[in-house]
Recover the amino acids of this structure.
């Protein structure tokens, strides 16, 4: 046998080819590691994506502390807090879905995925309610902006960041909800078990990331005060 | 043998000569393929098309500049043409050219893998590129855009009446194709290496591609969010970057260059990847100082994130931060110079074979060095103030982008052409085109250094009469350059049918891509290779190859 070409040990030599093993991977472990690393790389991209807008937000907060505080005062803190709790709850159910998928508990996986989907949808519904409240207050930036209180131009800038950042976050939630539906169907068909649960774990990483983004957005958009003032 | 299907009637090659090109036929076997090699071909076709569109705009600009008066293009059309030239060349040619075409094709084979880690995402990245390109073409057809490829605010958000939204949307979308390519490469390099292929046995192509991919992953999203903010401002009329409404236009420039300076390294690192391979192949030697070349790629990627504000020296940033960014910009020269010195040292006392790829390599080394050294001029605060927004800047970055990246791309296309197509290109014609490109390039851009230094500003369609001689020289050079670029189009297509058949290893080079057939089979290797040699170790590789033939 030469140094150059040696027949690789094919997975099917040892045990039957797993139905979800893609042809270009040697085994399920390699496939799993690749998909997990892929999601981490994607999340690195996402951090820089949100990082850009957070940097811009921070610069304007330093430039206009009073305007930023005035903008934050228009947020509904109790509703926002409740919504944060809802989202954190969805992270718990998502983590449990990964746990049950690893154990091959089909029904429990499906239930947890559906609970995650429901909590995510509740979050988006509350967000829509908040958006509507801002709209009726005249805080939607652009032609509908009718707010005339103190620091009105800066409040408009703040609200632009508010809608931009929460809007991008909501977009990620909507994409996540779509993926959850697809994953729930797969879990229902019994695709996942101790050997193969990569998609659920990858989805978990994504969902937790979206939650962490909110953990940053909530204090930055709801809870800030003018430094030194109240 | 009871019935004859259409499949049986079609000419199917015997299993021995089955390769990725004749594995299956039909338009959908290409448009729905997940084979990295076919996706590379899809990219090659679409990126080449964009190159000639961008080249058309460049040529029109040069024609206009033949005379001092604005007689061929109106100033508005001229603004649109230089913008479209920049947008098309940067976002749709330079960034995808080497990674998405050559990288896509060669990288998994070099790793001994059957495909990239995520074949579907690879195909998706091509479709995303195409959607972005269609936005670009839509803009070109319906009237263009005139902001310059940098989309500086507040002009782009408040004043320009051209298709800023569609153009930035195109750039935004295309960015995701580059992110997905980078993601695929990083995961593939980490997880899909053949048995025995340790990090320090990897070809230098892989190290550079890895560095490129990291920059793609971490810089591109910042451009994406910046363009989102720009689009929000333009559509809603709010003042994110508009000083009249409390915004800060310099912030836009910071965010834009936080991507767009690292993007320079997205363009040049893959070029360096190709050069390392070609230098090793045509000197038949190990690359001198392999670890230094490998780590200099990572150093360039890392330092590339810390120099962006050298584009803002005259934009009103503080003197202190300008000094810091000037200093940091100088640092990037160190790893770049390490590479140039190591390639040169590899050639020292080697018996170099002067085939076309090597001619392009020599062109690259000279032109990249000139481009790099003039980059240091621009990184120095005082000189930058003098030559900012002049043709000196234009000449500098064309020496890097065209003299560097395009030269390396052509070197790589010729070097791997026999692997990609199974056919040799005609050597004599290829050498002629390499000569035309080199002469044409220098005649086009060297006069622009002088023009810029004596004060000709960029981005005007008319100029003072005393600048005419050098501009005529530059336009003459562009004409030669155009022939230099059209010629490979013709003879490479010709070679598809009439080229001499290439064996598995026409150059006698080392590397896994030369250990498989030309063109490679669908899964790249008939057996997963086991690597027992270091990169560019000719004796060990040839011993392994020889033993294969004896088996």
């Amino acid at each position: 046998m030469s140094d150059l070409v040696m027949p690789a040990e094919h997975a099917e030599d040892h045990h039957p080819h797993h139905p979800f093993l893609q042809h270009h991977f040697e085994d399920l472990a390699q496939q799993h590691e690749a998909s997990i690393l892929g999601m981490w790389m994607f999340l690195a991209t996402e951090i820089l994506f949100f990082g850009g807008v957070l940097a811009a937000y921070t610069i304007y907060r330093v430039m206009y502390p009073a305007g930023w505080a005035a903008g934050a005062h228009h947020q509904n803190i109790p509703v926002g807090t409740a919504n944060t709790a809802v989202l954190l709850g969805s992270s718990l159910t998502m983590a449990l879905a990964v746990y049950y998928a690893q154990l091959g508990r089909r029904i429990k996986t499906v239930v947890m995925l559906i609970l995650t989907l429901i909590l995510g949808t509740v979050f988006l519904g509350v967000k829509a309610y908040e958006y509507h409240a801002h709209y009726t207050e005249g805080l939607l930036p652009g032609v509908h902006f009718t707010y005339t209180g103190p620091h009105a131009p800066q409040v408009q800038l703040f609200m632009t960041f508010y809608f931009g950042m929460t809007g991008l976050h909501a977009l990620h939630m909507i994409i996540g909800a779509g993926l959850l539906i697809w994953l729930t169907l797969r879990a229902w068909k019994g695709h996942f078990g101790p050997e193969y649960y990569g998609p659920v774990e990858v989805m978990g990483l994504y969902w937790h990331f979206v939650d962490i983004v909110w953990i940053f957005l909530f204090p930055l958009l709801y809870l800030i005060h003018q430094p030194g003032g109240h | 043998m009871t019935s004859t299907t259409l499949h049986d009637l079609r000419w199917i090659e015997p299993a021995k000569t089955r390769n990725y090109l004749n594995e299956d036929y039909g338009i959908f076997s290409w448009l729905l393929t997940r084979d990295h090699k076919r996706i590379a071909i899809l990219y090659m076709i679409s990126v080449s098309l964009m190159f000639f569109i961008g080249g058309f705009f460049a040529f029109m600009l040069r024609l206009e500049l033949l005379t001092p008066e604005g007689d061929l293009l109106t100033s508005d059309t001229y603004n649109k043409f230089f913008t479209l030239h920049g947008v098309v060349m940067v976002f749709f040619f330079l960034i995808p050219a080497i990674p998405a075409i050559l990288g896509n094709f060669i990288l998994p084979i070099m790793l001994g893998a059957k495909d990239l880690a995520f074949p579907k995402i690879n195909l998706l990245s091509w479709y995303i590129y195409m959607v972005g390109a269609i936005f670009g073409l839509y803009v070109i057809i319906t009237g263009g855009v005139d902001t310059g490829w940098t989309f500086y605010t507040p002009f782009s958000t408040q004043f320009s009446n051209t298709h800023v939204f569609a153009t930035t949307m195109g750039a935004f979308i295309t960015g995701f194709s580059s992110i997905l390519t980078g993601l695929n490469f990083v995961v593939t390099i980490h997880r899909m290496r053949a048995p025995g292929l340790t990090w320090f046995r990897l070809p230098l192509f892989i190290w550079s591609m890895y560095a490129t991919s990291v920059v793609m992953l971490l810089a591109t999203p910042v451009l994406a969010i910046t363009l989102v903010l720009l689009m929000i401002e333009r559509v809603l009329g709010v003042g994110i970057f508009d000083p009249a409404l409390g915004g800060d236009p310099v912030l836009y420039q910071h965010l834009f260059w936080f991507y767009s300076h690292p993007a320079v390294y997205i363009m040049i690192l893959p070029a360096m990847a190709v050069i390392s391979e070609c230098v090793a192949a045509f000197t038949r030697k190990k690359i001198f100082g392999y670890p230094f070349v490998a780590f200099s790629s990572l150093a360039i990627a890392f330092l590339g994130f810390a120099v962006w504000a050298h584009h803002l020296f005259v934009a009103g940033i503080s003197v202190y931060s300008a000094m810091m960014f000037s200093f940091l910009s100088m640092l990037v020269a160190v790893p770049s110079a390490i590479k140039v010195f190591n390639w040169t040292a590899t050639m020292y006392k080697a018996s170099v074979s002067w085939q076309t790829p090597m001619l392009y390599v020599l062109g690259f080394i000279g032109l990249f060095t000139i481009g790099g050294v003039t980059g240091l001029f621009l990184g120095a605060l005082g000189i930058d103030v003098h030559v900012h927004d002049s043709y000196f800047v234009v000449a500098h970055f064309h020496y890097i982008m065209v003299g560097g990246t395009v030269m390396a791309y052509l070197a790589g296309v010729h070097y791997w052409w026999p692997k990609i197509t199974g056919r040799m290109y005609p050597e004599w014609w290829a050498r002629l085109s390499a000569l035309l490109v080199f002469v044409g390039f220098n005649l086009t851009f060297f006069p622009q250094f002088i023009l810029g230094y004596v004060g000709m500003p960029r981005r005007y369609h008319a100029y003072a009469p005393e600048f005419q001689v050098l501009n005529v020289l530059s336009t003459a050079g562009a004409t030669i350059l155009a022939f230099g670029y059209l010629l490979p189009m013709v003879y490479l297509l010709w070679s598809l049918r009439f080229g001499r058949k290439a064996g598995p290893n026409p150059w006698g080079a080392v590397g896994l891509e030369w250990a498989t057939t030309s063109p490679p089979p669908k899964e790249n290797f008939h057996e997963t290779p086991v690597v027992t040699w270091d990169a560019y170790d000719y004796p060990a590789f040839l011993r392994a190859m020889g033993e294969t033939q004896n088996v």
About this structure: The longest helix of chain B spans residues 75-110. Residues 1-10 of chain B have pLDDT under 50 and may be disordered. DSSP finds 17 helices and no strands in chain B.
